[in-house]
Amino acid sequence: MAxxxxxxxxxxxxxxxxxxxxxxxxxxxxxxxxxxxxxxxITFVHITGAYFTSEQRRxxxxxLHQHHDGKQRDGEDEGGMTLDIRRVQIAMPDPxxxxxxxxxxxxxxxxDSISPQIEQLLLxxxxxxxxxxISDLFITGPTQRVADKFNLPRIAFYPSSQSLLLLANYIxxxxxxxxxxxxxxxxxxxxxxxxxxxxxxxxxTIKVRDLIEHITENSKQRFLWVFRPxxxxxxxxxxxxxxxxxKTQGRGFATHWVPQVKVLSHQSTGGFLTHCxxxxxxxxISHGVPMLCFPYFADQFLNAKFIIEEWKVGLGxxxxxxSGLIAKEEIQRVIQRLFETEEGEHLxxxxxxxxxxxxxxxxxxxxxxxxxxxxVNSLT
Length: 380
Prior knowledge:
Elements: H1 2-9, E1 12-16, H2 21-35, E2 41-48, H3 54-58, E3 64-66, E4 72-74, E5 85-91, H4 103-111, H5 115-122, E6 132-136, H6 140-149, E7 154-157, H7 162-167, H8 178-186, H9 208-218, E8 223-226, H10 242-247, E9 252-255, H11 260-265, E10 272-274, H12 278-286, E11 291-293, H13 300-310, E12 314-316, H14 328-340, H15 342-361, H16 367-378
Helix pairs in contact: 5-6, 9-14, 14-15
């Protein structure tokens, strides 16, 4: 019986994420949950490349620390548990140097070439030895080939919602024509006063100055604004607008980066203006923060639909019929709805109910807890 238990505990998963913040972070969170299982070891593969910026190369993928035994492991988990999560790096080719029809095709061609390096990792004398692979669904090719070659089980990790995964079964025809998209891309001069690329069909647009005017003159709400200077190529604002800082009179703070989860978990945070990426959506819901939805890419529109219409933990913006933009009056109206109306109180109440449900889900016998247990049991 003791031997059987010891054997069951000695799992070691090699985890491979698609290189990108929206893929690395959720996979590491999943790996942390797996590593909480008794005796479960994770080796997390960080894909890098010489073409990344020097700043990107010197930053570790997540909060990893060097231990006295020389192995890089994750520090203490939220529950105070020391997790055996190790880190290794492999490089992939520069996508721009590969032949292909477009940037995305070249990127995935570069990712697809990493199989030999993953094989080399599996040949290393790990203790305990690798017993399974965990990899992003978007890099199924190179990781499944290796799993098959070494006869290892592979856990496919999908970093978006299940609804998006099922959506492809219901799409008959594309919503946009290539001609429309190319025409919009040619209108580059329209980019000049916007945060997001203006004119792409289906993408809402907010003007920087409209946001500034509302925050500085029309709203008394305190705010934390994370302003990425590289958000729009060739945009007029390369640093945070000084006029905003000078007019807010201590009501706000602007920065290029914040620890988003810590901010959302703070009791003073009452709303979250978000693009509705799946990571941000889950983080807001699990911390009971209602959202102001500003989707612009990929799964974000579907996520926003659930946030607003199904779960009722957020609000959306309406575009002007004349300009196709989101006017400053609309910004003011939506923020007031969240903080100054009975509707906003219901949104906050719903968000807190979801937060409580998330907490219960990870307790013993909760749904998320049981799901993790089922995955581990499937490996034995």
